[in-house]
Amino acid sequence: MNTLAKSLPVPVYAPPALRLDPVWWLGELGRREPVLAGTGILIGLAAIPMALAGVLDPRVFNGIDVWIKPVKFATAIFLYMLTLAFFAGWVSRKDRRKWWFNAAVWLVAAAALFEIVYISYQASLAEASHYNRTDVLHIVLYALMGVGATLMVAFSGLLAFLIQRNRALNVAPAIRDSVVIGLALTFVLTMIVAGTLSAWGSHWIGGAHSDAGGMILTGWSRDGGDLRVAHLFATHAMHFIPIFGVASAYIFGAGNRRPVWVFSVLFTSFIAFLYFQALAGQPFLPFIK
User: Fold this and answer.
1) 78, 43 in Cβ contact below 8 A?
2) 87 burial class (0-12, 13-18, 19+ CB within 10 angstroms)?
3) Considering the entire predicted model, what is its pTM?
């Protein structure tokens, strides 16, 4: 039994999260959901040559290196797919064997691969992938990318539902709630922000429509609103809330679910603030250079 399981007053299924063995973790993720884990690892590895290309390729797009965007997306999708693979192990064996679950897994994997291939290809041409409506082909490909992104995010909502109904899962109530809420909010909040991004036709609202001079590391606008801020925190609800859930189980007790729900409300409110801040054309943390 691991340290977390020993410290909690109720039974809890919690793999050794503090184990710093990447080989073990790769094997564990592969056992939980090999298709999602394999896809995530493949996309993560693809970020390496793209980063190298960024060093060698002097071209820019929207004021920054053409390869920065595909590297960011590859890193984000890598983390997202591995997270889905991890939590897929909390779905009951019965549901994981269903044809519709496996079909959903393959659709999500295909959508992730399509998205990163298309973004990388467009970067190699120094052309836009998102909001590219220059001709019928690009309109169709952009629409397909939107469908794929929707499928990827919807899968987190499916996992939330399936984990919640898996009563055989031996997980502390605080941790179970944090995972279910985090996955569900990733779906709901991301769809709201992404829908606005699609309808608006740009992530910039006011300010210079260029990534040049953006916030360090993130590239977020410092002179106008930027919906990417709310989008990032929305998609990472599946990380922030479960991490709080584990900490809450240690501090407030494994059976105390109230802190998780309070934090979830506060986190949702924070994303709402970021969302309306961007819509008002105001930059996030403009004092950070």
Assistant:
1) yes
2) buried
3) 0.88
Count of residues making up the chain? 289
Residue in 277, 130, 228 with CA at minimum distance from that of residue 219: 228
Cβ(161)–Cβ(88) below 8 Å: no
| Dist. CA 135–CA 114, nearest whole Å | 19
Percent of the chain at pLDDT > 70 equals 91
| Poorest-pLDDT segment among 169-173, 182-186, 211-215, 245-249 | 211-215
Alpha helix locations (H) across 126-257? 136-164, 173-200, 228-235, 237-252
Q: 66-88, pLDDT tens digit by residue?
A: 999 999 999 999 999 999 999 99
Distance between start and end Cα atoms, the chain: 47
Structure confidence at residue 167 (pLDDT):
87
C-alpha distances in Å from residue 94, one per residue of 100, 101, 102, 272: 12, 10, 12, 37
Answer yes or no: is pLDDT of 7 > 50. Answer: no
Structure-token pair, residue 284:
């996030």
> Is pLDDT of 32 > 50?
yes
Specify whether the CB–CB gap between 172 and 8 falls below 8 A: yes
CA dihedral 128, 216, 201, 83 (to 10 degrees): 90
Looking at residue 27, what is its pLDDT? 80
Q: Which two tokens stand for residue 2?
A: 């691991």
Torsional sign, CA 234, 235, 241, 243? negative
User: Phi/psi at 114 (nearest 5 deg)?
Assistant: -60, -45
Please state, in angstroms and rounded to a whole number, the distance separating the CA atoms of residues 154 and 6. 35
| Residue ranges of domains in the chain | 14-170, 174-289
